[in-house]
Amino acid sequence: MALALGIAIAATAPAVAADRYPGSALQPVLSSPDLVFNGITRSQDGRLFSPFQRQTKGEGIELGEWVDGKPVPYPNAAWNAWKPGDDPASAFVGLNAIRIGPDGDLWAVDKGSDSFGGAPLPGGPKLVRIDLATNSVRRVYPLGSGTGPKSFVDDFRFNGHRVYLTDAGAPAILVLDLDSGRVRRVLDGHPSTVAQRPLTGEGRPLVGEDGGPVQVHADQLEVSPDGQTFYYQPCTGPLYKIPTRWLDDEEASDAERAKHVSVHAEIGSTGGTAIDAAGTIYASDTDGLRILAIAPDGAVSTLVRDPRLVWGDAMWIDAAGGLWIPAAQMNRAPIMNGGRSAIRFPTTIYRLEIGAKPVAN
Fold it and tell me: Which positions carry the signal peptide feature in this UniProt record (predicted)?
């Protein structure tokens, strides 16, 4: 399938330059003795939020705000109290990613299933917009028209009045029009959205609760600061790119879009990414326990490596130039570790001062 792109996909991560920062520059800023989180976002006034991964069905929170160093359900307990039989359209069933949008609101994507790889419930897949001033849900964007029984809506980024989302279960990119609420699938099943090599963490192939290999298709994504280029990848890499005009063009066919896809950087299994205002993409290397810096020309270097960075997940760049890195340990969670938890508590979020400026999208 890689040959359809005219590109050979490497089996290993690239050789990169010496580390830019020592591990000692990593500052632990948040931790939990019993919860697993796979992301962090920070509002302009300093409020911190994380999505949480329930280790037991029906127990724990999905979205929390860090208050005095501890997470509390956000925007309220009701949105975090879903259980089988409840309406999946008005509560978090399986939250996967969050971020502060260009409008200053908190946005969250719900895959709509309470299990990893499980079929989403009718009305479950959605993008939720939360007003931070009133701590209430402003609008829910249903994603059901663009998803199917194998869908796993994973992450999202903004570009003007559009939101791009990855489908890690039924590999594709979703394009949501925020004005109309319409959802389109693009690059549906294209080789660049499909995982084509084993997912690994800490140097070993990952297996699901059923004992089979874990596959996470279209996952990480970023938009260039000028909004002209879309970067994306299966969880196992490599990192691809395509001009956003080909995602936005509703008349273009996927066959035409495919002609404009190219590899941006040859990287391997990745937990999460972030992009700064200069167009540098930061990606976690789940095997090397490091954060890579990918320049706009695709050159790769090592930002920092440290044994504490076990599955660095969705990162965030704050206004003061700090890179926030959740060490999510997802490869040690039952869903990727043969049904057995090897997570070592406390779980921790680190901050690295890199002097970069954030982008609004």
Answer: 1-17
Per-residue pLDDT tens digits for 211-226:
999 999 999 999 999 9
Return the SS3 of 200.
strand
Q: How many residues are recorded in the chain?
A: 361
Q: How far apart are CA 323 and CA 18, in angstroms?
A: 19
What pTM does this model have? 0.94
Sign of the CA dihedral with 324 first, then 268, 232, and 279 last: positive
Q: Summarize pLDDT for 164-215 with one digit per residue, the tens.
A: 999 999 999 999 999 999 999 999 999 999 999 999 999 999 999 999 999 9
Under CATH, to which class is 2-353 assigned? mainly beta
The answer to whether the CB of 202 falls within 8 A of the CB of 331 is yes
Q: Residue written as tokens 């939720």?
A: 128
Q: Using CA atoms, how far apart are residues 30 and 293, in angstroms rounded to an integer?
A: 23
> Tokens for 353?
């001062």
DSSP 8-state code for residue 248: H
What are the C-alpha distances in Å from 165 to residues 2, 86, 200, 339? 22, 25, 23, 28
For residue 324, the tally of other CB atoms under 10 A from its CB is 22
Residue with tokens 């936005």: 248
C-beta of residue 73 within 8 angstroms of C-beta of residue 59 = no
| Cα gap 125→115, rounded to integer Å | 13
- The secondary structure of residue 144, as a DSSP letter, is G
3-class secondary-structure state, position 361: coil
With contact defined as beta carbons under 8 Å apart, do 277 and 262 qualify? Answer: no
Residue 141's identity, in one-letter code, is: Y
Strand 347-353 versus strand 322-327 pairing type: antiparallel
Q: Which of 277, 243, 280 is CA-nearest to residue 360?
A: 277
Please report which confidence band the pLDDT of residue 60 belongs to, taking 50, 70 and 90 as the band edges: confident
Burial class (CB in 10 A: 0-12, 13-18, 19+), 127: buried
